Amino acid sequence: MADSNVTSLFRSTAAHSPSMAALARESDGTGPVDFCIPCNPYFPTPAMFDDMAARLREIITYYPSSADTITAELCNLLQLPPSCVAMGNGSTELITWIDHLMVRESLAIPVPTFGRWTDQPMETGKRVDMFPLQESSGFALDLTQYAEFIRKRNTKVAVICNPNNPDGGYLHKQALVQFMDAMADLDLIVIDESFLEFADAEVEPSVVQEAMLRPNVVVLRSLGKNFGLHGIRFGYLVANPALAGRIRSMLPKWNLNAFAEHVVFILKEHGAEYAQSLQQVRRDRLDMASHLSALPGLTVYPSQGNFLFVRLPVGAEGTVVRDRMLTEHRILVRECGNKIGSSSRFLRLVVRPQTDVRRLVSGMEQVLYGTRRGAAVPELGTGTNYSSGTAAVDRLVGATNGAGMQNLAAQALATGTSGVGMPMQAPMQMPVPVPAAAQMPMQPQPVPMQMPQQPQPQPQMPQPQMQPMVAAAQVQQMPMAAMVDQSNGMGMPMQAPQQMPQQPYGVPAAAPAAPPMPQGPTPTGVPARNGLTAAQVRGATSPNGMQNLAPAPATGWPNAQSWPNAAGMGQAG
Fold it and tell me: What is the reported pTM?
């Protein structure tokens, strides 16, 4: 697989990775080891695939049954009333109709998250209020702060993904019920439980039963992710009969294909295998987290999904890591630079069997450290012609990095908005105009060499929490990006805040004596001098910047517990 072809494939996909079919066409016809697409590697069983293969001609030759027939069979399996369920051709179809029918003017969503929750309403002209999850708190969602954010913005619809994608953050059922009680006057609350069946934090984690009783709650569930069948495209939502009926009335009569029908009708025969597959994924998640956390400088965040969110060592550029893992080791990983609220320092890695994980770890050791651990992968070269982000601000930063354009932050502030429909903090209220969504918390004094800090949780949450796992070993070398993390984006040590002159908004200040600037172009992935990275600009989404949002406690690593299968097909042992 040629490097140029790989680059072209990723550059042509705006907010997602290229399909496995596209990658296979650029190789010898076989795809790479997939740590990108979050599906269940243990289900369907080989026997189920053999059955589908034997009936392939019949399945693809004839029309499927109507969506009502397939939905009725699924409801019989899940023990849900059909009047409360709508099945879609993947969860994306349901998200589309939720937006068209139930989102009037605005929608709130924590970021980073699944891209369609931000992109779909923006495509139809809605205001999307993005609530930034804090790296310093392990990307945990504080529901109290989220509720205050919604009230300040007067947002009409609230979305919560549980577990969240890409970080796997989890919210307990009782906390979600309290949130729904507090937000009962909103037009709509959507709880996206697409990855919930991989969670083991509680015995009964779903709020499906609550959704059927409430007038403004919709729960979204995925079948492709749970069953390892993304290509079939099927998912469903649960709500009270009036809401579910509105969605059903807009769906085509044959919106579900014959493969979806076949799988739904054979699931009742394979409940035990499905439950075992979920248990194995949970065991593999712990094993994979343990192996990855042993890599120097790599941070692994607690997850309840079938994936792990990791921060690369200081100086590592995610697009370089992604491309080298694919071209040199035939391993596909999900670089998260094109997710709003994230950056190219983060990867999402899907949980896979231990044999594949050992291959992943071996490849990452070679890419990140060469023949030894300790030296991080270099930044992208200045000749690279694609960006790790997709928003307009990413293109702006990418276009100005090479020239080292001055005062990019001031230009962003001069517009009076953060690019997501929300006002930016005035400079007089911020000693340094860098939002808290920067890649790493900055220290007031320069630190020559420092490992990523473990976030300190606040005492608001009652349950015990675990911090992200960071390898104890020190990274031996710190390239340019490390200095940027401890600087103001100009490659110079950060000064104490009280030494920064504060100026009223809109009044130009006398230019101080400019310190000596580094010569040469700024590498891609490093903010332009006196500028902000794309992730920093996109992260400033609260009405008063980020200063009024205290870090939320990190989600703890759960104890493994058995819980009834949410699909009603036996018990997880």
Answer: 0.66
